[in-house]
Specification:
- The complex is a heterodimer.
- Chain A is α+β, with helices and mostly antiparallel strands.
- Helix content of chain A is 61%, strand content 12%.
- Chain A has 20 helices and 10 strands.
- In chain A, strands 2, 3, 4, 5, 6 and 7 form a 6-stranded antiparallel sheet that branches. A 4-stranded antiparallel sheet of chain A has the order 1-10-9-8.
- The longest helix of chain A has 37 residues, at 39-75.
- Chain B has 3 domains: 30-97, Cytochrome C biogenesis protein (Helicase, Ruva Protein, domain 3); 104-151; 174-309, Alpha Horseshoe (Serine Threonine Protein Phosphatase 5, Tetratricopeptide repeat).
- In chain B, helix 2 (33-42) packs across helix 3 (60-74), helix 8 (188-200) runs antiparallel to helix 9 (204-217) and helix 11 packs across helix 12 (256-266).
- The radius of gyration of chain B is 35 Å and the shape is elongated.
- Classes of the chains: A alpha+beta, B mainly alpha.
- At the A-B interface, helix 14, helix 15, helix 17, helix 18 and strand 3 of A face helix 1, helix 5, helix 6, helix 7 and helix 8 of B.
- Chain A: The chain crosses the membrane at residues 55-74, 104-124, 136-156, 186-206, 218-240, 260-277, 284-308, 320-339, 367-387, 399-423, 435-453, 459-476, 488-508, 611-631.
- Chain A: This is Cytochrome c biogenesis protein CcmF.
- Chain A: Keywords: Cell inner membrane, Cell membrane, Cytochrome c-type biogenesis, Membrane, Transmembrane, Transmembrane helix.
Chain lengths: 655, 311
């Protein structure tokens, strides 16, 4: 099994390496043909592309086989493999045996390789309608990426024989919740989907073919990755909220930030390559941001798997750090060099009107890049300082709130005003007249929320959300203005505004932690929990202590909930099993922290978290908006019309 | 006419929004010590966890640190003073917002420098015409940024003495428990908690009913039966208590508290039975707080039953 697995990984490596060379040759053959009229070049290019496609397919097949091999070993609990002995146990349900693949470093890198192989195969198929040269560059870049991760997978192979030295088992946290089967694969798909925009961007920079079709391809892949990434990140936040028992969903942990960074730049890409957003030096920005997104993805893998940053999410420290850093640099250098060399060619010195969508989009890009850089500073600078000066500093939520709040506010304002601005030029007056209804709705909501809750920023965000909702209603009900792009954009922006309201409203919650005897009561505001009984049971893999508590609101009884504490004997780990009662406007979150047999005291944490369910809903709204805006038009209705390079940026019909 | 009306409505809404914001911005409200303590706790890192604040962490050390924070807040110390106190003992690492000195300064300067660089790039690009256009927008953005910077709440001010709200008094959980019992009448644990709360409130008669219900739900549980009997004794029904206990001992002969209570109850009528029960009790639970007195009582020739033994 060890031999077979290693052979499969070497096959992935060999096929991708051959693929990289063949794809490069295909691109080159075409370049020669373009340079001098020769009929043989075209035929050779096409043949080479065919071989390249085979190689990419072969790499995919080998990666699938390798993953299947480990999965079979995991499900049958074949402990000849060290990896299986480490992550799986005979008492583990089948579902968690399958997901155990990505619960430790070696297996997660194998899954990573598989997703990358899938994405590569899809991307070279998708690029079939483009020029042989661009396709060659895309195929070559993706194959080289696969080569890099095949080497990494071989370095941390899950196929090593059991030498008896079973290292630390993964946390039972990774075997405790169904989300484990969904969250990592979603994130991986989102991350690696961004490899395609990177490759397409490099292809565009190399071949100088940066037309509307190029932009559409960038947009398509970025949009799909963005949706997957959004879902993955929010699912992770929800998991953290529902399982970890600390009552929060985002801790500004370095690894969480690492997933946010490519999300931010991907968002910026979408606002650069969308049909009505191609303004200014959009080609340079699109190529730059799309490339940066994947470089940031690679940085995220380095941060997660090197032990460089201190994080609860980090895998155990591994010797892979240097190899992953080399990959980051290898991806960064060609991108940076190409963007730098093309910057004059693709630059734009025109000065758009101040009151125009063009200006709004430039500001939006700048702000998103600034947010990305600030988060990047907070994520890496403490570790860099520690490595270079030995100075230990922490950067936590208070720092992020202070540094990001102003930028976030500007972004939110731009987000609701931008779509109302005329694409080219306009005046304050005409613009103000067009958006007077949403503005009045927003101001009304702002005033009302400010008066009721006495919270400035909650009121501002609620006003912006009302503005977005009113705009959506106006655009959707107006036959002349209604189209997929406008409606999708407003739906997505509404989602972001609702998320802002949920985050700010969530800050108004109350938390109490107290030790009480059975019959005692813990109070948070008007909400109470009264301990009515204790319960213990043995579930084999874990032993569970549960507290029955009666939830009350004021003098009213609401329901009985049963938060748990789960003790995993093998891993010697205690996990909380919080109970969450979700209501329309708030969550009541009860965590059992401790049961002291001797004194008979039960330690409970009671949190009332406003608007949490709005946050999960807002993510759904965002994804829905992105899907509406990005849903492919039927090819019959809109025949692809590749515009020549000199073609000015397509402008929306609504000017 | 309609135009005037529309304008009036717009102006009214504008004024409404401004007034709302004004009232929200000036309404400081009473700051409770708990809120301040929580805010400070959120800015301190739990030294034994991975990047959690002591407000969120359930580690033992965090718990102790939280208590210290609360104590210092109640002493009227400002958030900055408390943070400095912790930084002195645990190092700057304990602060989740790095200090503005030393290398921590770098972390605060970096975002400002980034924003500055972006502004410069926007201004330098595209010549004077561009510059003029951008200046207005940037001035607006800068004003907003500074405004937000100043308005984002900072844990800094000490809690004024006398304004600290004390936590609400003990909550009356009886109505909640009563509703809970109606809601889940089959839950014996709930009945017991309800009965306990009734006893505490001095409603012995009602407590007995609740205990009786719990006993019906858990007829074989000697602890429940014992508490039922205990409540009966307290509310002056020793006869009923005896019946409950006799039933208990038919199921389990080795329940020490029941032996003790029944022994004490039958002592007046049937000293021999009482002595047998109490002897059994001493054998079963020699560590029981009442065991010594019971032994003395048995050896003392069954005189007066010591009052402490009885409920």
């Amino acid at each position: 099994m060890t031999v077979l697995g290693t052979v499969l990984l070497i096959l992935v490596l060999a096929a991708s390496l051959t693929g990289a060379i063949v794809w490069a040759a295909a691109a080159r053959a075409e370049a020669v043909r373009v340079a001098g009229p020769s009929t043989t070049g075209a035929g050779r290019g096409r043949q080479l592309a065919k071989v390249g496609q085979w190689m990419t397919g072969l790499a995919l097949a080998a990666a699938v086989a390798a993953v299947a091999l480990v999965e079979v070993a995991l499900v049958s609990h074949d402990t000849r493999l060290n990896f299986v002995a480490m992550v799986s146990g005979p008492e583990l349900p089948v579902y968690y045996r399958i997901t155990a693949l990505w619960s430790a470093l070696e297996g997660s890198l194998l899954l990573w390789l598989l997703v990358l192989a899938v994405v590569s195969a899809l991307a070279v198929r998708d690029a079939a309608d483009t020029s042989q040269r661009s396709r060659g560059v895309v195929g070559s870049v993706l194959s080289l990426t696969t080569v890099a991760f095949a080497i990494v997978a071989l370095m941390a192979s899950p196929f090593t024989v059991d030498d008896g030295a079973v290292s630390a088992r993964p946390s039972p946290l990774l075997q405790d919740h169904v989300a484990m089967g969904v969250h990592p694969p979603l994130l991986y798909a989102g991350f690696l989907g961004l490899a395609v925009p990177y490759a397409v961007a490099l292809g565009g920079l190399v071949t100088r073919q940066m037309d509307a079709a190029w932009a559409a391809r960038l947009r398509r892949w970025t949009l799909v990755s963005w949706i997957l990434l959004t879902a993955g990140i929010v699912l992770g936040a929800w998991w953290s909220y529902a399982v970890l028992g600390w009552g929060g969903y985002w801790a500004w942990d370095p690894v969480e930030n690492a997933s946010l960074l490519p999300w931010l730049t991907a968002t910026a890409v979408l606002h650069t390559v969308a049909p009505r957003a191609r303004v200014g030096a959009w080609r340079l920005w699109a190529a730059g941001l799309a490339g940066a997104s994947f470089v940031l993805v690679l940085l995220a893998t380095f941060l997660t798997r090197s032990g460089f940053v201190e994080s609860i999410h980090a895998f155990t420290t591994s010797p892979l750090g240097p190899a992953l850093l080399v990959i980051v640099v290898a991806a960064l250098v060609p991108w940076a060099v190409l963007v730098h060399r093309r910057r004059r060619e693709l630059g734009d010195t025109s000065t758009p009107s101040l009151v125009s969508r063009s200006t709004a989009l430039r500001v939006n890009r700048t702000l998103l890049v600034l947010v990305t850089l600030v988060v990047l500073v907070g994520t890496t600078l403490p570790s860099i300082l520690l490595a270079t000066t030995g100075e230990r500093l922490s950067v936590g939520p208070p720092w992020y709130h202070r540094t990001l709040a102003p930028l976030a506010l500007l972004l939110l304002v731009m987000m609701v005003l931008g779509p109302w601005l005329p694409v080219r030029t306009g005046t304050w007056r005409s613009t103000a007249r067009r958006m007077r209804l949403p503005a009045l709705a927003g101001l009304t909501c702002l005033g009302a929320v400010a008066l009721i809750f006495s919270e400035v920023w909650l009121a501002v965000s609620a006003g912006l959300a009302a503005f977005a909702v009113a705009s959506l209603a106006m655009v959707a009900s107006d036959r002349r203005r209604r189209d997929r792009l406008a409606v999708g954009a407003w739906v997505a922006h509404t989602g972001i505004a609702v998320a802002a309201v949920a985050v700010l409203g969530g800050g108004l919650g109350t938390v109490t932690q107290e030790s009480v005897p059975v019959g005692g009561t813990v109070t948070a505001g008007e909400t109470t929990v009264t301990v009515i009984g204790l319960d213990g049971r043995d579930e084999g893999r874990r032993s569970v202590a549960a507290a029955q508590v009666a939830l009350g609101q004021g003098q009213e009884f609401v329901t009985v909930v049963e938060p748990e504490l789960r003790w995993y004997e093998t891993e010697r780990t205690m996990l909380a099993g919080p109970q969450i009662r979700s209501e329309l406007l708030r969550d009541v979150y009860v965590t059992l922290l401790d049961v002291d047999e001797e004194s008979g005291l039960v330690t409970l944490r009671l949190a009332v978290n406003p608007l949490v369910s709005w946050l999960w809903t807002s993510a759904g709204i965002m994804i829905l908006g992105a899907a509406i805006a990005g849903w492919p038009r039927s090819r019959r209705a809109a025949p692809a019309r590749p515009s020549p390079r000199s073609d000015p940026a397509p402008v929306g019909q609504r000017a | 006419m309609r135009r005037v009306l529309a304008w009036s409505v717009a102006v009214a809404i504008g004024i409404f929004a401004i007034l709302g914001l004004w009232s929200a911005a000036t309404d400081s409200g009473p700051v409770s010590a708990e809120d301040t303590a929580r805010e400070v706790s959120q800015s301190l890192r739990c030294p034994t966890c991975a990047g959690e604040s002591i407000a969120d962490s359930s580690a033992l050390l965090s718990d102790a640190m939280r208590r210290t924070v609360e104590q210092q807040v109640r002493q009227g110390r400002s958030a900055h003073e408390i943070q400095a106190w912790f930084a002195e003992r645990y190092g700057d690492e304990v602060l989740l917002a790095p200090p503005h000195t030393g290398y921590g300064w770098l972390l605060w300067a970096a975002p400002v420098a980034l924003v500055g660089a972006a502004v410069v790039v926007l201004l330098v690009r595209g010549g004077p015409a561009n510059r003029r256009r951008w200046t207005g927008l940037l001035a607006l953005a800068a004003t907003t940024l500074v405004g937000v910077w100043l308005l984002v709440p900072r844990a800094g001010a000490p809690v004024p003495q006398g304004m600290q709200q004390e936590g609400a008094g003990p909550v009356d959980t009886l109505p909640i428990l009563r509703d809970a019992v109606d809601h889940a009448p089959g839950n014996a644990g709930l009945r017991l908690a309800f009965a306990g709360a009734l006893e505490e409130a001095g409603k012995d008669a009602e407590a007995v009913k609740a205990y009786a219900a719990a006993t019906r739900l858990r007829p074989l549980d000697p602890d429940t039966r014992y508490r039922h009997a205990f409540a009966l004794v307290r509310s002056g029904e020793p006869r009923a208590a005896r019946e409950v206990l006799e039933e208990s001992l038919r199921v389990r002969q080795d329940h020490a508290p029941s032996l003790l209570l029944l022994g004490a109850l039958v002592h007046g009528e049937d000293p021999d039975r009482a002595s047998a029960l109490l002897q059994q009790f001493v054998q079963l639970a020699p560590e029981h707080p009442a065991a010594d007195q019971v032994t003395a009582f048995l050896e003392g020739g069954l005189g007066q039953m010591p009052a402490e033994v009885l409920p």
